[in-house]
Amino acid sequence: MAEPVQEELSALAAIFCGPREWEVLSRSEKDGTVCRIHTKAEGLMDVDVPLELVFHLPVNYPLCLPGISVNSEHLTRGQCVTVKEKLLKQAETLLPEPMVHELVLWIQQNLRHVLNQPETGSGSEKCTFPTSTTVDDGLWVTLLHLDHMRARTKYIRTVEKWASDLRLTGRLMFLRICGSSENLQSRCGLKWKEMQREND
Q: Whose CA is closest to 123, among 76, 189, 169?
């Protein structure tokens, strides 16, 4: 890792030293560093908006733009994408210097103005996962295990909506649990439900 990047990460850890404010999610010689910052910025109507900002710093950062992900329970998906696009546009003006702290300060000072602008046309089609034009993020596999559900049909609809909103492809698996005295092979089984996104 380049010395300026290491210095920047050390400075960020010192600046965002509150509980859960700063976390290095991964560090790799091949893929670079992924870090997460929890902060707040003044939104519309003078209300502080909690923001989760994830920065993917490729190995050739700061000579190239970082990947940025924006997430907040207080913003719509389109607003998160708009914030991300504005941050990337601001990042272009900061090349080739380390810029994560400058970007966090910029969004803290400008979130209200960003939210006052109309959402970009592409906002409804994009996800808020870290992406970078210079790094292939590859295939991600995630398993979510839930032990109990009260209303199966409602549960399935909710998970399918989440998968559709996040443009995920996956499977739902249901396992019936049998009593200990019953024949496991004959009485238990797996039921799969495919969730496929439509091809673009």
A: 76
Residue-wise pLDDT tens digits, 40-83: 998 887 788 999 999 999 999 989 999 999 999 988 888 999 99
Contact 175, 188 (CB under 8 A): yes
> How many residues make up the chain in this entry?
200
Nearest to 30 by CA among 133, 136, 139: 136
What pTM does this model have?
Answer: 0.59
Burial of 148 from C-beta contacts in 10 A (0-12 / 13-18 / 19+): exposed
Beta pairing partners, 195:
170
Our CA dihedral for 102, 115, 64, 4, rounded to 10 degrees, sits at 20
Distance CA 169, CA 11 (A): 39
> Cα(101)–Cα(27) distance, rounded to whole angstroms?
18
